[in-house]
Amino acid sequence: MAVALNTLVEEADRYLGSAKIQDYCPNGLQVEGRPQVMRIVSGVTASQALLDAAVQARADLVLVHHGYFWKGENPCVVGMKQRRLKTLLKHDISLLAYHLPLDLHAEVGNNAQLARQLDITVEGPLDPADHRVIGLIGSLPEPMHPRDFARRVQEVLGREPLLIEGSEKIRRLGWCTGGGQGYIDRAIAAGVDLFISGEASEQTFHSARENDISFIAAGHHATERYGVQALGDYLARRFALEHVFIDCPNPI
């Protein structure tokens, strides 16, 4: 079956509530391709590697978490940006991108999906008093040694994480996928035993050590692979479409 591009985009916008979320980039349809969609290719970032793979897969639409047109970037269509846009336009492929809406969503969001992957029970937002904070709080079924949990992360994500180990077993966790390491102090205030993010900053080490909590940096790309897959699956079910997730490995 095929679905009209506008119909698919409207449903994705509605489902994610993207119009209500302030962001650093436009969410939704970023590049318009052919008017009918039968095959979706999803991936984390709209890199050239993903676009080339989407062409080979005969995609009508590419769905990503990291798209284009970020605030503060050079708006000129030259170099890498020209080559990427040329690929989409030459092959009449649409680009559909959701950044913060795909971090925040309670079902298909990156944070909710990471919890499912790691068997974490979601209890609520990382900071209920501040809706701008994206992360979540949750718990494990049983207390675990930090090294054992780090091994679980490695097995699930296929990437060795950076572990800063606290002195206690972990049960209560806070997390924010991608570049959410700056929320570690909010997590400490919430009383977590472990905070997980994709990346780490220099000061993250000191916050974890001096507050005696564990910290895991599991990779920006690795922690944000699951939301876009879940959204692609949702749209594929909703409109009886084909959906293929293509992972272009990124060690960051």
Could you characterize the architecture of this molecule?
- With about 250 residues, this protein is of the alpha/beta class.
- It folds into two domains: about 100 residues, 3-Layer(aba) Sandwich (Udp-n-acetylmuramoylalanyl-d-glutamate--2,6- Diaminopimelate Ligase, Chain: A, domain 1); about 120 residues, 3-Layer(aba) Sandwich (Udp-n-acetylmuramoylalanyl-d-glutamate--2,6- Diaminopimelate Ligase, Chain: A, domain 1).
- Helix content is about 35%, strand content about 25%.
- It contains ten helices and 13 strands.
- The protein has a six-stranded mixed sheet with strand order 7-8-10-11-12-9, sandwiched between helices. Strands 2-6-5-4-13 form a five-stranded mixed sheet, sandwiched between helices. A two-stranded antiparallel sheet has the order 1-3.
- Strand 5, helix 3 and strand 6 form a beta-alpha-beta unit.
- The mean pLDDT is about 95.
Which SSEs are present, and which pair or pack?
Layout: E1 3-4, H1 5-16, E2 28-31, E3 36-37, E4 39-45, H2 48-56, E5 61-66, H3 79-90, E6 94-97, H4 100-104, H5 110-117, E7 121-125, E8 136-144, H6 146-157, E9 162-164, E10 170-176, H7 184-189, E11 194-197, H8 202-210, E12 214-217, H9 220-223, H10 226-239, E13 242-245
Parallel strand pairs: 4-5, 4-13, 5-6, 10-11, 11-12
Antiparallel strand pairs: 1-3, 2-6, 7-8, 8-10, 9-12
Helix pairs in contact: 2-3, 5-10
